[in-house]
Fold each of these.
Amino acid sequence: MILLYITVLLFIVASLYSILSIHKDMPKYITVTKILMGIILLLLLVIGYLTPVYIAGVYKIHLFLFFYLIILFLTILTLYMGVSQWNSDYRSLSAILIPLTTIVAITSLFFANSPRFMVIDPNNSIMVIHIVLALLGEVLFFVAFASSVLYIIVSWQLQKKSSMKFINRFPSLTVLSKLTKFSLSRSLFFFTAGIIIGIIMLFEVYGNISFGSPKEILMYTAWTIIFILWLVSRSHITSNYYLSIMTIVSFLILMIVFTASNVVITSGFHSFR
Amino acid sequence: MKEYIPQIGMVGMSHKTAPVETRECFAFDTQVLESFLSNAKANNILEMVYIATCNRMELYFVSPHIEEATQSVIHLLEQFAGLTREYFEPVLYKKYHKEAVRHLLCVASSLDSMVIGENEIVGQVKDWYRWATQHDTTGTILNKLFHQAFRTAKRIRTETEIARNPLSIAFIAVELAKKIFEDLSKQSVLLIGAGEMAELILKYLTKFKIGSVTLANRSLHNAQRIASEINQDATIITLAEIMETIPNVDIIITSTGAHHYVLTKDMMQEALKKRTQPVFLIDIAVPRNIDPAAGDIHDVFLYNIDDLKSIADENLKTRLNETKLAYEMIDADTEEFLHWYESLQIVPLIAKIQESFETIRNNELKKYRRRKLKHLEDDDFAIIEELTRQIMTKTLHIPISYLKELGTNYHSKEAKEKSKLLQEIFKL
């Protein structure tokens, strides 16, 4: 628990540094941000190692573990951006990704001691693949949301026609729209794969492909929304501006519904007891 | 002891003090400069760097007698420029020690330039410094000073906004285009009409390897002239073909003499119906050629000449605001350099102590060689010589390290008192 608090604290510091790097435009801030994210990743790996999963012959996946995996994937993704084709725009992308990951990390604290869990049969490794793929889909949808927010910010700044001081610190509009489309297509891929694996697993274990549980309904809704967004991004129906607005609104609605349902529905959902 | 420490000085003139007719008289060619510097060396000037740009001429030098050295430099300037001292001395500034150091740091960081934040000056200073090192006219002090100046200039460029935002209208337009589009080589531009500013923007875009250029003009002759001057591969269309072209272009520059809107909001909406990518509209014309309402369409970014001018003003303001921070950095770096420079003051004391011990050692060795050690072969005596040298070096190691440490804080009263005490102890 202490390690988790330290990690969240480091996330807050890294968020402040990433925002400062945009505000002050000093390279040393981005270097500190990258170092902090590296330390955070190490801490997350230690937390993962220390979190009990295999208890009394069964895999017990606590609610916190879902938050943990999302945070872990986002941290890896943020670090990956610092060494990949996105590196030139790392400063502005990290300034939005890290604070948002910090919010998820802070939220996870409220679920850290939650007794709710689901049991995975040790002989059913397909379940783990299903969880990982679905979470990757969610994380990439989160990235599409972040780049869409940046698109709107840069677009507003360009419309305002004020000083270049502010917009100079952000990537170009086409880079942001490319990132949104890239994330949406990958998100759809992982989500689809996660759902298919989930259906196969249900059929193998229960002989049924659906139970109509709240979790399934939410999963299919999310997939449908991402699919529509992906279709829009591939077509010429609307401009990048409206695609960004649609992505932001869809993500926020799904986030609210997801969080609220996790709090309100305490049984049956995600098979948590 | 202080009179032995070389001092830093500079003389110079710039756009702030002298007109170009005076400045140009001091723009020496390299052959003249070689002769100038060898004359300076003969006048007890130990190190010297000459800097000449279109806005300034400055000479940085190091001498143990700085006042006399300054007079020698002025005399040499008089001689080599063929002008009387009375003619140029009123526009000449002279700075010593801290002021000279600070001035060089300001010059290299472009804080003393006509356009604050300009890029060229640091390169020009580097070129002149390189020339001086190649001609062996620099030494420990100026080498350290110029490297400090380059470091400070780099720091100011990277840690402040001083050079970041452009001031020219054409360059601002290109920078804005780069904030909308990732890669200009994949974008296309349409120039409607002609005009000095519009052509300049097109020139800049071509310099940044813009993908394709289309020219629309009432006069075919004008369009051909622009194409031959700026982009030979440009496509030429008539004004009637504009509407068919607009959906396929990313940047539109308008600069016609029309007294009505050439592009209206409805026309833009219609043209952009099937387009998902943003469009950048630059309306340079007065009266304006594009309906301002067109800028309300999402993903359409419309800038007229006043918008670009106000960004230029805003950028200038940002640069000026940043000068305060830059001066703070310069003051800190000046102090850092002077700290190092102060530490040099201990060097003569160290040299004198070493010299004094060496004299004692040599005298004693000579005495023994003549009497008690006269039976020794030269090789054996050389071993004894080496032995005594080693003993002396090791004996002095701790006190010299202490003195070097003292030198890093030489400006303090305590350090000065301690060094004075050492001089008394060793009777130096």
Amino acid sequence: MQHLDEGTIHAWLDGELPLDERELVEAHVAACDECKAAVAEARGFMAASSRILTALDLVPGGVLPATTSIARPRAPRRFAISRAWMAAAAVLVLSTATVIAVRPKREAAVMATAPEPAQSGKAVASNGPIARAPSDQMDASQKKVERKPMIVAQAPAAPAPAALAAPASERPQTPVAASPVAKDAAENSSATAGRMSDAVSTRREAATNVGIPITGRVVSESGAPLGSASVQVEGTGIVTLTHDDGRYALVVPAARADGKTKSLVARLIGYKAATAPIAPAGDSIAQDFVLRANPLAFHELVVTGEGTNGQRSGVFLANGTFAELASRTSSGESGEPVEISLYHVGGRYITFIDRLRPDTTRGTFQDPAVTMMEEKYDKQGATINRLAWTDSEGRMRTLRGAVSVETLQQLKRALDHPTP
Amino acid sequence: MHDVDRLFRAYNETLVRYLTRRLGDRDWAEEVAQETFVRALRQETMTNERAWLFTVANNLVRDEARKDSRRRRHLTMLYEEEKERVVEPEETAIERAQDAAMARAAVDGLAERDRLALLMKEEGLDYSEIAAALGMSVGSIGTTLSRARRRLVEQYEQLQQEQKRREGNAAS
């Protein structure tokens, strides 16, 4: 296969390639340092261009109201972030090796935009959204700043497992050199860069001593990646969640890698669990899963939720994927799995339904005036569609995500009239 | 006949943001969005609602820009008045204005199609919807977006550097 052209890379990162092509691209990226660098660069461009575009929302003088979105309170992000943070933490803790693959580029990018200490306040201000000081008026950019760690956590999603296997020394220079943002940083601080790569190799060594990494991908029967599926070494607390692209990475600590065969289980509500035997020994383990749909789980999910009155508010109950509803839609999105989350908040049940998309993050926030609401935003914080309503029993329900209106209607009907 | 309430609830926010980003004028954006929904009322069938709405909004902007620059000037004037009315801490105001101005300049520097494709992508439209709204082939959207993103970032960075240089000169 030839090197990937930029358009294909962007289409891939946007999750717009058909499955067969996607697999070709993934295989190529895994094997080609040049394209790996191009992917890193493309990610940089995608994130930066979104950031730049959000500045257009900050119309001076407050002509632009706080927002038209029904409610976009500030504080609640804490709650929202907690899940994402948990995911981030999981990535950080469980796969140090994965993180270092992106780390050099991240640090470089931050350096490039970081204010120089000697400059005045005004100069600092001009350094762009990343470096901007938060203020009450600057809701949007503040969110960007808060969410940055999530971007770090997400970045390794696709190329990570490949990078994991590559020798540490190959990695740092490719992505750094590729990014125009990073170029600056490299020129300004080659000394820092040197120190950084030392740190990288130290961390890499630490990671291999820690245990045996297990990586793989969880997909549905149709080959669609399944995000937020749990992958667990059965009978242990060693567990992780898959990224939106279905990939996961976890580490069996050296102390527990006794060579005995263990079971690795992948679970996602709406699917039947799948188990694979693993013998934690050697350098690393690759284990993919194909989960078979279990559509009934959707209704079970609702019923289960309604039976849990009295839980404290704001509890995330469950989430799952329900492929069947989506496959019934007429909108050309057939077969796309729909993710369903159920929350119990202040005596109400809240569902959150979404088409699974790569490069998106989900979060929840508390709107003190109304009720708990959930919002989906992409990496850069742009909100994607949502729909909220109160059902016949006064329960607040929300549907969001970049699904078609037809899909939303069908889902809403299904939720309003669940079959027992 | 469509349920315009539903359409409005589902798409108004994203459409207004898209138009605001595109036009740099919130009032104008809201007007265009409103007109778009009015047109939707008269529309018998839509195969893809979101693509349809964005296409109509695009056309309205184009028609309006062609024939009615006077009204736009008026809106700009109102907008300036509004700006003066609202008091902001100076630092914040300068900072925001600088960012917004650089972003605006960088966005305006893109070719029309690249700009529209990028702004629609940011509102969550997928490639087929963007292709439908712009009358392009789905296969060319990746290339269009990659070019748009690269150019936007490069132009913005260039503006930032110029700004920094100017501030450096002013300081010395």
Amino acid sequence: MAKTILIVDDSGSFRQVVKMALQKAAYEVVEAIDGQDACAKLDGRKIHLIVCDVNMPRMDGLTFVKHLKTTNYKFTPVIMLTTESQEAKKAEGRAAGVRAWVTKPFQPSQLVDAVAKLCAA
Amino acid sequence: MLPASTPDASTSQPTGQVATVLLVALGAISGWLIGILQPPAWAAALLTAGWVIAIHAWAQRKRSVAGSESSGDEAAASAPLVEGVLPIWRRHVESARLHSEESMGQLLTSFGTISERLEEAIRYTQGQSIKHQAPSVESLLSNHDDALKSMLAPMRAMQSTRDDVLARLDALGKDMADLRQSALQIKQLSRRTTMVALNASVEASRAGEHGSGFAVVADEVQQLANQCGQVAQQMMARTATIEESVTSSRLENASLDRSDDALQSQAEAAARVVVADLLGDLSQLSRTSRELQAAGTAVQEEVERVLLNFQSQDRLSQMLECVTKDMNLMSEWLEQGSDLGAEQVDAWLTRLDASYTMEEQRSDHHGNTAIQRETAIEFF
């Protein structure tokens, strides 16, 4: 059975790039346009991994990850996929339980490898 | 500089001229007093130095005042223009950002569809090439030998039936020979019986009247023997005719058998040529398919590179958004008419610097060389 990945990014084009890369690797994809939308998508369905941007309107990525830890999805691994490269933000992400930090632009194959690694763990 | 500041500069010019004339007049009066009062040399030098310092200080103040008045007037004059233009620039930048994002989204969808179609085509050609991976036509023929045999099976069955008929004709020929031999024996028996009947007739004639009855019997026996001989002769003739026909049929069948072998060989060779041509075409098709597959893979890789480059849209969008936000703040600040001292400028630039998310933005802000960063994944 295909594993389901939740993509959270306010950029439609970026969601499309990530979606294509993951679908090609036989993953099922659920999309959310920001942290608030992602919270609504966590409706009990099985999510194997979350790929999340940092800077988004309404609810940013790090706030969403912190909220995630209070839900039934607290053990779901999260990869931050962002243009944000400040060490302070990375440290904040690490403290919030983020498992990997990918800085844009990224190689789709590298992202797929990271997703496979964290899904298998 | 803006034309609005020019009248202010011209109005401050007469005041400066009056002050200069006053200074020159005071200098002349001082010189006249020194000439009349004849003060000591050190006092005259001190007075002159004092005047020089005073004139220099006045000149500096004049330049400073003129400069501050000019820049203040320019700022005051240009503020409405900036207030008017800044929101327009902001709207233009925002509009450009939205348009480019929308266009990139549509382009991405199109490229995504192309990539999916290519992947399907490659998967299909991969499936086809697997079926035709035999290295040569000969080995393909060998692989399809069963099919060739089944093609020639009806011909082989017909030949087998003919062989059976031929065997039966052989057996019939042997039976005919036996029958002819039997007829020959009957004929010989008939001849001997005739001889016996002839002897019996001779002996009956010797016996005279007493042998007349026996002579009749001997005559009858001779007639029967003659009839048997005739029947045997007919049987022999008929058997010979049949045997001749059987022999002829056997020869004909043997000839046909040889023709069938040749025909079968020809048919098999022709079938092999046809199948070889067919498999040759299939091999060519398979090669073409592999070439198409390679070309498709190359195009797909290129599409993936294009998709990678599309990620710049998100970066561009973030850069423009950052500039738009700052324009917005500038516009609000101008509307409030706040004073902008050196401290506020520093605070503004520090806040702007802190709002960046990308290294490129920071590099651009500080005028550094752009950083070439490799894609990297940090696992925590």
